[in-house]
Amino acid sequence: MIPAVGRSLELYYIDGRPDGMVTAELFNWTGHVLMFPRTQLSAALARGEASYAGVYLLLGDQNGEPFAYIGEGEDIGARIRQHDVRKEWWTSAVLVTASANKLNKAHVRYLEARLIGYAKAIGHTPLDNLTAPVLPILSEADIAKMEAFLENLLIVLPAVRVDMFIKRTRSARPAMSVVSMPLTDQQNPGNGGTRFVLESRKHGLRASALLTDGEFVVEAGSMGRVKWTGLDHHTYASLYAELRRSGVLTEQNGHCIFTQDYAFRSPSAAAAVVNGRASNGQIDWRTADGGLTYKDWEARQVAAPVGAA
């Protein structure tokens, strides 16, 4: 297996403020990303790349939920001026162009269609786009170029706080009963991870998760609360709502069921979604053999000598 190769990303804060305009570029990539708050719209559109062909994202919220629009244009600055008048909900924007204005109309239409399709498939953020555009006809070589461009773009966007294209659902593994698994398989499943379980007798919940490749993945079939009972403004309340909206959590027989494996950023985020309220995942999750809390298991891993089994 070829090892993963690191990438070099350069962020440049144009006015020296982390919440102001920022550009992002990858080494050896012709793409260029500019993100800016709506309050700096005039300054952003005065920049040279704003008159290039490219795609753009308008980001904000509507009715308390994240909301976005994906568009394209041969002069994206002119297009955004139109949307600035017509759309009141957006608060920041991202311009995606290429050095020396190398993208043409067919290229940006292709990128727009692929991004819209990808965003709809992930379901993280509802779109203001009413229809999904049809992919334009490109040569085989141009398709390969745009797919490579898109692959790099999806690496850059999270660095400028755009997470709507991060896919956290995972390919389902064969169903397996945690109770009936041999102890050795519980501790070290076939893909090299460690399995944890969370149970709530009060609410009749049982969930299983696998820590593998640095991801805490709650497995399909796990159970969660049928509604969020914690504080409405809590960060994980919006995450719970997102998973309900996207269909990752589906109501069945008085509970919610995970329809897909889902990678959380932390055990506490996973525990909060399962319990329907803010939770301490360090304590709520236990190793599948019924022994250690996640906190104690992690402490043992840190204390173990490097390379120890």
Produce the secondary structure layout.
Blueprint: E1 9-13, E2 22-26, E3 31-37, H1 41-45, E4 54-62, E5 65-73, H2 76-86, E6 90-98, H3 105-122, H4 140-156, E7 169-170, H5 183-187, E8 194-200, E9 205-212, E10 215-218, E11 223-224, H6 235-246, E12 249-252, E13 255-258, E14 261-264, H7 267-275, H8 281-284, E15 286-287, H9 294-303
Antiparallel strand pairs: 1-2, 2-3, 3-6, 4-5, 4-6, 7-14, 8-9, 8-15, 9-10, 10-14, 11-13, 12-13
Helix pairs in contact: 3-4
Beta-sheet strand percentage?
A: 25-35%
- The N- to C-terminal Cα distance equals 22 Å
Overall mean confidence score, pLDDT: 87
Number of helices, counting only DSSP H or I runs of 4 residues or more: 9
Question: Which percent range fits the helix content?
Answer: 25-40%
What overall form do the CA principal axes indicate? elongated
The overall number of domains is 2
- Succession of helices and strands: EEEHEEHEHHEHEEEEHEEEHHEH
Helix/strand structural class = alpha+beta
What ranges have pLDDT less than 50 throughout 5 or more consecutive residues? 174-191
Profile the largest sheet: 6 strands, antiparallel
Largest sheet, spatial ordering of strands: 1-2-3-6-4-5
Tell how many strands the DSSP assignment holds. 15
Q: What's the Cα radius of gyration?
A: 22 Å
